[in-house]
Amino acid sequence: MARPSVPILSGERIRAVALGIIDRDGLEGLSMRKLAGELGVRAPSLYGHVTTKDELLHDVANGILEQVDLSGFEGGDWQHGLVACARSYRAALARHSNIVPFLAYGPARRESSLRWMDTLHGALVAAGWPRRHATMIAASLMYLVFGATMTSFSSGFSDDETFYPDRFRHLDKAHLLPKVAEELDRDSFELALSAFVDGLELLRVASNFQV
Amino acid sequence: MARPSVPILSGERIRAVALGIIDRDGLEGLSMRKLAGELGVRAPSLYGHVTTKDELLHDVANGILEQVDLSGFEGGDWQHGLVACARSYRAALARHSNIVPFLAYGPARRESSLRWMDTLHGALVAAGWPRRHATMIAASLMYLVFGATMTSFSSGFSDDETFYPDRFRHLDKAHLLPKVAEELDRDSFELALSAFVDGLELLRVASNFQV
DNA sequence: ACCTGAACACCGTTCAAGT
DNA sequence: ACCTGAACACCGTTCAAGT
């Protein structure tokens, strides 16, 4: 039928199925025709609910970023706030790592990224950090979160155990990595995060920035 | 003419022009037809020299990664080595930031990334770090380098000075960022790098890992 | 109001044909 | 040996037409 009594499509359903395809098939695996097909519809129908594929991706992205918890600074401890916000940011992105390359493109124009930056910047200035340092610290955390979720360092290793040892003698355990990829990625992120924050505290004391 | 006396194409020339297009028009701006056009040729001709677009991108990527300097560890100081290698890695990627999203995809299967990882891992173990810590430290640096070059945090800000202040009170200077984007990105990376290494030294001493 | 088929201008890639 | 035109199976998107 050309016109069902109850509309098949809605912005919400389109975004949900689109994210599902991205999670399953990757960012390149999402096409308007495939998306339409999984929604039981033809591609042109989507354009009654969505202005463009790019905007659809932005909407999906914002839906993910809205889940980031910014309440970590409420206690007033800037170190705890940084760690909590970065952790929450990473957790939200790690659940949908295939979309991260899209997220990384132009974060400074995205409302939700700006709110994150603004919260961090404000809390750091309130904690005594100079404005420029606050900007750089927030930028550094963004680097770390995006790098950690996008690079997917560990999951890319081959699980063929003959692949590494002969050519790279320090990587003779590398074929074991995929099995523990998720854990290793999370631990590496936590190590980077805590070492970074510890290093910042050293700098703060050495520079005599007041709390 | 269908067959020039001197071949127009070569793998090297194709890669150079392809990288030029990526730098100028972005990763999505590279198509085989456009590439062929700038080489004075039709698209199918490229396939005599290149097996696939994906492989061409890998070759271009490897050409960039070969410029990374791994000699920083030769002095034996692991902290200096980490900083030097990370700096060199970032510098190579920052020169061609449009290709970084492609690089981030599956770094663990790329020869040049593996050499980088292997060098760092070996040097860290030699400096007394446990193997698992060495892996996590190398991963952390990879996160930082890729995040810093890909996110391009500062360059994405709007230069419209009315864009930020009313909505985000802590970002009232944000419209100035594009002008100093490059410097801020580099300074943020340096801050993250030194704070991270300082934090690692704290951890090393606290954990009593021997040099 | 909502969905469709046909069409347009693009892709990456193949392959028989030309010189 | 090297390049080409035509073709195939895809894209995102538009639009007049159907109910």
Explain what you see.
Two copies of one chain form a homodimer. The first copy, chain A, is 57% helix and 0% strand. Chain A has two domains: 11-51, Arc Repressor Mutant, subunit A, CATH 1.10.10.60; 68-207, Tetracycline Repressor, domain 2 (Orthogonal Bundle). The mean pLDDT of chain A is 86. The N and C termini of chain A lie far apart (67 Å). Chain A has helices at residues 11-25, 32-38, 53-65, 78-94, 100-103, 111-126, 131-151, 181-207. The longest helix of chain A has 27 residues, at 181-207. In chain A, α4 packs antiparallel against α6. Chain A is flat and about 65 Å long. The first copy, chain A, is mainly α and 211 residues long. The interface between A and B is large, with 62 and 63 residues. Chain A binds a DNA duplex (19 and 19 nucleotides) through residues 1-4, 7-9, 31-33, 41-45, 47-48, 52-53.
